[in-house]
Write a structure and sequence with these properties.
This protein is α/β, with parallel strands linked by helices and 376 residues long. It contains 12 helices and 14 strands. Bound molecules: zinc ion.
């Protein structure tokens, strides 16, 4: 060990709050004990019921993580059902001759899913639609396809052009679609009824996000907002947060009553509006607290002065991201700490930081997405 190395080690050890690369610290997130489930006092809970339709505005009385392997089913409308197992949800539409399902998670055991379906319909499954190509939501379709093939049924699989491209690129073990629908807003037919497959933006949660709007006014879109809660940590690992917001603006512009969201409880339009208010608050905090010192170069100057000539771009950037994220998170936390998922505000601040830093020009006034609905 050289003297120079020892000296450097001593300097790092003496800096308060600094961590050596060899001992990365892990930030453990503990559930906040005082949070009220969902949005707290105003939500009404119902069911789950196989026969009675969910009263508009109600949530289904099921836990976040139910009994492992157990399907919980709630009838939403005349023909539509919400089903959830192991925290992954599917939407079911019962036609006159067969059943259409949106999403079949990798965690699904197809015989169990078919048994759950038989609790409310004797009709066979004919069609699966993909909300997006992520394997956690759709890898189970391949096993379902194999099981149905043994019974002589060729499963129809509908997906967007972008989803088909992503599946092909990743060779990701999701059954390829048998029917590819153009991006944009396109109708496809199921037993003579029109369903809308909307794939309105190029990049949001994934590069191939669709919403599926059925004739009963039930929409399915997955890995976006959480009803009565803040988003998932890292905003569901989404690619592009402005795209994520724009996708939801298109969803908000459609005509629907109930939303199936992939993991969480049944959602409503009011949930998107609440999520938008939160996102806008994060963008505003970045613009007020981080942008002025960044766009003038003050932040870089300060870091160089503090760290001396040994500062590398990698370490500067690492610290700058961490510090900016912390500043934005602390600023918005008092206004949102009453909602579940507020434990992971820091990760939301990180994603917004990334989006606004990389995608917005500081010389232009509007440094955030728009939040108004986009009509079809
Ligand atoms: Zn996903």
């Amino acid at each position: 060990m050289t003297t120079r190395y020892l000296l450097a080690l001593l300097i790092v050890m003496a800096s308060p709050g600094a961590t050596l690369a060899e001992e990365f610290s892990h930030q453990r997130i503990a559930p906040a004990p005082l949070l009220v489930p969902w949005s707290g006092t105003e939500d009404k809970f119902f069911g789950p019921s196989l026969t009675r339709q969910l009263p508009f505005g109600h949530r289904v009385a099921v836990p976040d993580f139910g009994e492992p392997g157990k399907w919980y089913v709630q009838r939403l409308t005349g023909r539509s059902y919400w089903m959830i197992c192991n925290a992954f949800a599917s939407t079911v539409y019962v036609g006159d001759e067969s059943v259409l399902i949106v999403d079949v998670s990798s965690s699904v055991n197809p015989p169990d899913m078919l048994a759950a379906l038989r609790s409310f319909t004797e009709l066979p499954v004919s069609t699966v639609v993909y909300s997006h190509p992520h394997t956690d939501h759709n890898a189970g379709a391949m096993r379902l396809q194999e099981l149905l093939a043994q019974r002589g049924v060729a499963l129809r699989i509908v997906a967007s052009k972008s989803a088909a491209r992503e599946i092909s690129i990743h060779q990701n073990n999701v059954a390829p679609p048998t029917e590819i629908v153009p991006n944009g807003r396109t109708a496809f037919s199921f037993e003579g009824r029109d369903f809308i497959l909307g794939t309105p933006v190029a990049s949001a949660h994934s590069p191939a996000d669709s919403y599926v709007l059925n004739p009963d006014g039930v929409i399915t879109y997955v890995d976006f907002n959480y009803p009565g809660r803040l988003p998932l940590a890292y905003i569901s690992s989404s690619h592009d947060i402005t795209g994520w917001v724009n996708f939801l603006r298109h969803v908000l512009g459609e005509d629907w009553d109930y939303a199936v969201l992939g993991h969480a409880n049944v959602g409503y339009k009011r949930d998107i509006r609440q999520t938008f208010a939160y996102l806008e608050d994060l963008y505003d905090a970045f613009n007020t607290l981080i942008l002025p010192d960044w766009s003038t170069g003050k932040s870089i100057g300060e870091a160089v002065q503090k760290n001396g000539p040994g500062l590398t771009a990698g370490v500067f950037w690492g610290n700058y991201v961490e510090q900016s994220t912390q500043t934005v998170a602390l600023a918005v936390h008092p206004r949102w700490k009453h909602l579940a998922h507020s434990e992971v505000i820091r990760s939301h601040a990180y994603k917004v930081f990334e989006d606004v830093f990389l995608n917005y020009n500081p010389e232009v006034q509007s440094m955030k997405p728009q939040f108004d609905p986009i009509a079809p």
